[in-house]
Amino acid sequence: xxxxxxxxxxxxxxxxxxxxxxxxxxxxxxxxxxxxxxxxxxxxxxxxxxxxxxxxxxxxxxxxxxxxxxxxxxxxxxxxxxxxxxxxxxxxxxxxxxxxxxxxxxxxxxxxxxxxxxxxxxxxxxxxxxxxxxxxxxxxxxxxxxxxxxxxxxxxxxxxxxxxxxxxxxx
Length: 171
Fold this sequence. Notes:
Layout: H1 5-13, H2 17-27, H3 30-35, H4 44-56, H5 60-73, H6 78-83, H7 86-94, H8 100-114, H9 139-150
Helix pairs in contact: 1-2, 1-9, 2-4, 4-5, 4-7, 7-8, 7-9
């Protein structure tokens, strides 16, 4: 299941909603569950992928279940506890909350805090951030902003860190 996470983000960035839907449906096929021994197994990475699937399929019950598992397990890894707030953005999409746009502003602050967080290790830091690489941006936030827009939520926030305008679907 974890292996689908980047595919989902790529679909969101490309505004390819049919492919994202097909991938989410495929993730729920018995063969995927059996071959991946998914069920209730897996840690935060699997739970994140499953939250994405539930968000795409508008399955609040499945999302809540995975989010509660993730809330329990996120404290095992500092990065998830301190900096992974994307489940909250997914929750706002499912709730069709117009507070999504303001949540992007908070997400930007969290993303920037990663650049100087001395507790992060193993590549989670943003060691090419801002003054050294103008191309660094919060891929997750932009991808989820595209999904929010697709679900008809208002997304106005756009910045160098969350460049939502650069990924708007062509009309």
